[in-house]
Amino acid sequence: MPIISFGSQDIDLITGKKTVTIRKLWKNPLKIGDRLHCYWNLVSKEKKKIFEAEVTAVDLISFKDLKNDEEIAKEEGYENSLDMVKEFKKMYVNDIDDDDLFQIIHFKKLDIDQWEGEKINEKAMVTQRADILFDSGKYDKSALCYTAALKFDPNDVYLLNKRGDNLSRLGRFEDAVRCYDKALEIEPKNEYIWNNKSIALLNYGNPEKALETNNKAMELNSKNSVVLYWRGFILEVLGKLNEALEVYDELIRIDNKNPEVWNARGNLLSEMEEPEEALKSYDRALELCFDDNDIDAEAQNRKGNALLDLGRFDEALESYDKAIDIAKNNLEDPSYFILNKGVVLMELNRFQEAMESFTKVLAINPKNDDARVLRDECLENL
Length: 382
Description:
Blueprint: E1 3-6, H1 12-15, E2 20-24, E3 35-40, E4 48-62, H2 63-66, H3 70-75, H4 81-91, E5 101-109, H5 122-135, H6 139-152, H7 157-169, H8 173-186, H9 191-203, H10 207-220, H11 225-237, H12 241-254, H13 259-271, H14 275-287, H15 297-309, H16 313-329, H17 335-347, H18 351-364, H19 369-381
Parallel strand pairs: 1-3
Antiparallel strand pairs: 2-5, 3-4, 4-5
Helix pairs in contact: 5-6, 6-7, 7-8, 7-9, 8-9, 9-10, 9-11, 10-11, 11-12, 12-13, 13-14, 14-15, 15-16, 16-17, 17-18, 17-19, 18-19
Protein name: Photosystem I assembly protein Ycf3
Pfam family, one: ASCH
Keywords: Repeat, TPR repeat
């Protein structure tokens, strides 16, 4: 019973694209018709059976010929033969000689009712892999897995919704909407899917249609905080600022401990040129971030902007400094926050320090025209 282990990154196995693998010649070589039991991560805690297969062809090749064959390397899923050789040297800890033989094993996946060994829930296995990839931000690979899982059940609402979410992450908003529409044909009273569709439509540049779709979700549950949050955002995009503010206020009545809502309210009030009220919202948002790790640089920057609008320059400077420190600690680009700090320093007539700030921005991004113009203005005032 030959067993083959694959790395869990070999997603093409479950999509059916990968039907060949290369292994060093075994003591008992494979032959056509042999049964393969295929696993992911065989020697780890994540060991998982993926399928059984039948060998359809076996070719032998010396390592001397294999290591320079770019075509075989690409068929095996590597960028080039050099990457393939590096991987083989990890797999086979003893040195590989040029005369060593390798098997190029071609196989076909067998239907589960033809398996000899333990049978698994293939749909659940593929779905779990898709969810893991989605949560880790590997959207190209997770999209392939959700597509593969839907082959087992094209009407699975969970999978249709998740595939729609996945396609949205990839910027394929029309395809995402089609997935949501199919899911809604099956579950027309699912407010979350209506909401997800509205988000896709908004990102696709159709806020009017997004609001219509959000209305459908509201009809089902007007107190759903997720639906309300996106409703406020859609109304902002449509320029319906007072209506958006009413939505955020309603959200706060439902749950006044959500920092994201307070931040959104602060952003809206800033746009409405009400910096005093905006500052209150930003302060409340920061208060609710009990863990310092939850406070991001942009939150401090928004507070700094509100303080700047109010002419409270020393406090604004303090907020921008915090934003810069957070960005640096998170290995993020701090240049935007440094630029804002420079503007405040100019307001305080601290032109030498302001010029140094703009110089730092230009060191990070030499093409930042704002920093260049402002630095020149500082020079004129020195």
